[in-house]
Amino acid sequence: MLKIKDDVNLEELESFGYEDLGVCYKYYGNSDILGFISINKGTREIKRIHPYSLREEANEDEVQDLIQAGLVEKVDDK
């Protein structure tokens, strides 16, 4: 599972186009208007939300900009 590192200020996500919705940050991306990336503020988990897909885990391509900026870490599923 991918998550935002604990030492990252979540407000940094806004500079990457993520919108603060109170309990999470949301990003629509460039290619798929129906789906979006959600980052839970409490757990910092990165999820992929799409109405036509059961896959919830975001892949590295979908958050490449955050990975390149050093904001993401990969952790084992609990």
Provide an overview of this structure.
The protein has a 4-stranded antiparallel beta sheet, with no helix packed on it. It has a two-stranded antiparallel ribbon with strand order 1-6. The longest helix has 5 residues, at 64-68. It has 78 residues and is mainly beta. The model has no long low-confidence stretch (mean pLDDT 89). It is built from 1 helix and 6 strands, in the order βββββαβ. It is 6% helix and 27% strand. A hairpin with an 8-residue loop joins strand 3 and strand 4. It has one domain.
Q: What is the gyration radius calculated from CA atoms?
A: 12 Å
Number of helical stretches of at least 4 residues: 1
Largest sheet: 4 strands, antiparallel
Number of domains: 1
Number of strands: 6
Strand neighbour order, sheet with most strands: 2-3-4-5
Question: End-to-end distance, in Å?
Answer: 9 Å
Instruction: Determine the mean pLDDT.
Output: 89
Large-scale geometry: globular
Content of β-strand: 25-35%
Tell me the series of helices and strands, N- to C-terminal: EEEEEHE
Content-based structural category: mainly beta
Topology readout:
Elements: E1 2-4, E2 19-20, E3 24-27, E4 36-40, E5 46-49, H1 64-68, E6 72-74
Antiparallel strand pairs: 1-6, 2-3, 3-4, 4-5
In short:
The protein has 1 helix and 6 strands, in the order βββββαβ. With 78 residues, it is mainly beta. The strands form 2 sheets. The protein has a 4-stranded antiparallel sheet, with no helix packed on it. A two-stranded antiparallel sheet has the order 1-6.
